[in-house]
Amino acid sequence: MSNCLLREFVAADQKNTKSHYENLSAFGIPRAVWCGTGGSLIGVQKVRSIERGYYQPCEPGRPYYVCPIGSHASGFWQFLDDLCAWSPSQPNCWFMRTGNGFMLNPDEPERCRIHQEPIELHATPLDWLRAGGRGAVILDWSINLHLTFGGLSHFICSTPQLVGRLSAGLSDTGRKPQVRLSQETTNVAA
Questions:
Q1: SS3 (DSSP) at 129
Q2: What pTM does this model have?
């Protein structure tokens, strides 16, 4: 499945046009996201939703942006677990291709553990792309947050709602992680 998803994403990446790039720029997404060395973080695919939370490529479907979910630690896509389709007009709504992915940039918790850094979490794929693909996005909140984020004690969240949701999800362990709003969000709100 991983190779099929990788081929599907490469095809979606190749469908990006000048107007897509202009649209992405208008939404504050830096150029490096779609033309970085080692592989783009976004493609375009016509899709239709097939059931709650899932999509299927479909040529007469609506165009959505598609982000790969998988290991990108070396700077190149090594394998993909899933693809996430979303639209800037509804950034809080996304569809998964297979349901095997739970987070954009799933290598990020481990990287933060190794380097003893806080993990930056974004509320939507759009927020993540605006940050240049730094940090991560929880796409499926049914995951075991303690297993995923074990060993991490500092979290920086892009929205107050994300701070609340993450704090509530991590509160039953007895340890109190530091979950705070990102400085960028605080500066924009001021």
A1: helix
A2: 0.89
- Give the C-alpha separation, 91 to 162, whole Å: 14
Nearest to 120 by CA among 86, 91, 78, 163: 163
Strand pairing category for 62-71 and 43-51: antiparallel
Q: How far apart are CA 148 and CA 70, in angstroms?
A: 15
Model pLDDT for residues 12-45, shown as the tens digit of each residue: 888 888 888 888 899 999 887 876 555 788 999 9
CA angle 118, 122, 123 (to 5 degrees): 140
**Which amino acid, residue 75?**
G
The domain segmentation of the chain, as residue ranges, is 2-101, 108-189
* Alpha-carbon distances of 184 from 7, 28, 150, 152, rounded to whole Å: 36, 14, 26, 21
Dump pLDDT digits (tens) for 64-120.
999 999 887 666 777 899 999 999 999 999 999 999 999 999 999 999 999 999 999
Q: How far apart are CA 122 and CA 135, in angstroms?
A: 7
- Per-residue burial over 24-37, b if 16 or more Cβ lie within 10 Å, else e, is beeeebeeebbeee
Task: Count CB atoms within 10 A of the CB of residue 83.
Answer: 27
